[in-house]
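Protocol step 4 of 6: record predicted structures for both targets in the notebook before any analysis. Target 1:
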Amino acid sequence: MFAANVMSADPVSIKPGAKVSDAVALFRASPLHDFPVVDDEGRPIGIVTARSILHFSVPTYASDSLLALMKGGPAIDSVYKNMAAELDRPVSDVIDRHVDLVKGSMPTSAVAAMLINLKGDTHNILVVDNEGRLIGIISARDMICRLPEMMGPQPGESQTSR
């Protein structure tokens, strides 16, 4: 099995010049948490996540580990005010540029290993073609949901029982 067999093809993406408000609209209209950011040729340059937008909205002092231990933080209205102030920023200001890319021919065993070792805000791996253009996205959920079809019929199980 290969990455191309488990990826979600043709993922929704956004351009780096789009506004943060455009990304927020995507989040509101979709159950997804991450959207690839692609250049004009469709090549990934990063990923915008709900967490990366929130990161720019929470005051810097609130990310201090001591503050987290104290269970304190800024009032939620200040977070929303900060978020509203960021809506006109370009998406390129808030993206996570550390994204893992694989080709569709990458074995799923290697993809699974990459997924459990991801760093940063995203929990996805982007799949690109030979020219580096985005063709799909893979999450751990994609791997799990496709497990039955990847395994094929089990002994004593008919094709129609799936």
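Target 2:
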Amino acid sequence: MQHVTEKELDLLRYFYEHRKGHVRQVKKAVKLSEHTLLKYLNSLEKRKMLSSRSEGNLKIYEVRLESALVKVFFSYFDLERLELLEYKRGKAVKMFIEGVKNFKIPYFVLLFGSTAKENYTAKSDIDIIIVFDVFEKYLNVKTDLIKKNILAEIGLKVNYIVMKLDEFLKEKENKQNYALQDAITSGYPVFGNQLYYEVIFK
């Protein structure tokens, strides 16, 4: 893999959170001199992780979502966020994923709501979307069992939505499903990250 400096990683983290920004916005967030910032932005652009365009007198940089390296780094940032969750909450999310994987490997699992936004309280529910290739009746029954075990063992309630991949893609485009739009906007994958980014960045 190409070497990425710590400063470039900070820049990629900015674009993970914001997707795009003009030089002054980025400079304010990452606290670099303009000269140093432009050097790193140009380096990321040369490696096709960012693209740039001019709007009036502003230069806008945008993350190139089709870049394989961007998907790798975004997956890394997702993992960081999961590890930063309060211990019990993080354990509940991981327990849920492992439980689901034991009976059927999903395409991806998306965490959203207050847990993803990091404005949860000790009693906040955990909201999750699980995306499979096909929907089978037993999925809800087995997932309910995992949910009950987590509530009994950890004391946190998990709300989940099971979707087929084609249904997820359709809802993503027609923007009628509020929960899904919220999940795409403020949530992040906790399993199948690279597959998720393949789908979401189409």
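Step 5 preliminary note on target 2. DSSP finds ten helices and seven strands in the chain. The two ends are 23 Å apart (CA to CA).
Proceed to step 6 after PI sign-off.
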